[in-house]
Write a structure and sequence with these properties.
Elements: E1 5-10, H1 17-31, E2 38-43, H2 49-56, E3 61-65, H3 82-86, E4 92-95, H4 98-104, H5 108-120, E5 124-129, H6 133-137, H7 141-152, H8 158-162, E6 165-168, H9 182-200, H10 202-207, E7 209-212, H11 221-225, E8 232-235, H12 242-250
Helix pairs in contact: 1-2, 1-12, 5-7, 7-9
């Protein structure tokens, strides 16, 4: 099976309204040549999703959210529900980014509830998994990412799982300038796909797209994306410049 590549840019807590609109338009222009072959997603701060959706219009670029709450509504001050995101044109949502896990104490069970809710509300979840440097050096990488993946997809049907995107982001490579080698990244991606095969069978496992994230840039993107089980990238800092991001899409 040939899986369609997907490159998503996580803008994190960056850009104001004018900057976000300008960046979104620039990304659409710079990546237009690749639209037939690659899914392109931008993931702005929550307050900027609506103006970014408007700015992109009917272009090939989709819009995602950086986070969501699993409940549909209620007394959850500061949170956003899935229907709030879809109502302004959002199509994807990141669930369980390492910064949410580390800085805000999100558990894998809570992340799994978000993934299930995303499907319930018509969003495509991007489920993030990854180990810390201490865990890698202790030889725990496979166990850590396996546990995060299994808890993150708990309760999904095969159909929902096939439409879930998994992002392997080694915590030690996020924003540090350090990047997993293609061999290291491929080994973890293959391990994750093996778990998916055990969970849902070969057909579903081959359908799931698994991204790599962690200091991806134009100089390392082609080699990383050349690995057989790496289907795209979840890009952080390099997504804040349209030409740099487009170079990764082009890779």
């Amino acid at each position: 099976m040939t899986r369609r590549r997907i490159i998503a840019g996580n803008w994190k807590m960056n850009t104001d309204r004018d900057e976000a609109v300008a960046l979104a338009k620039a990304v659409a222009d710079a990546t237009a040549a690749f639209a037939a072959d690659v899914d392109v997603v931008v993931i702005p701060p929550a307050t900027l999703i609506a103006p970014v959706v408007d700015a992109l219009g009917d272009s090939h670029v989709a819009v995602g959210a950086q986070n969501m709450h699993p409940e549909v509504r209620g007394a959850y001050t500061g949170e956003l529900a899935g229907p709030m995101l879809t109502s302004v044109g959002c199509g994807y949502v990141v669930c369980g980014h390492s910064e949410r896990r580390q800085l805000f104490g999100e558990t894998s069970e809570f992340v799994g509830a978000k993934v299930a809710a995303a499907h319930r509300f018509g969003l495509i979840p991007i489920l993030c998994v990854g180990e810390t440097l201490e865990e890698r050096e202790a030889g725990q990488t496979e166990a850590i990412v396996a546990d995060q993946l299994k808890r993150g997809i708990d309760g999904l049907s095969k159909e929902q799982l096939a439409e879930t995107i998994v992002a392997y982001e080694p915590v030690w490579a996020i924003g540090t300038g350090r990047t997993a080698t293609p061999e290291q990244a491929q080994a973890v991606h293959a391990h994750l796909r093996g778990i998916l095969k055990q969970r849902a069978g070969a057909e579903v496992a081959e359908a799931v797209r698994i991204q790599y994230g962690g200091s991806v840039n134009p100089s390392n993107a082609a080699e990383l994306l050349g690995a057989p089980d790496i289907d795209g990238a979840l890009v952080g800092g390099a997504s804040l410049k349209a030409e740099t991001f487009a170079s990764i899409v082009g890779a």
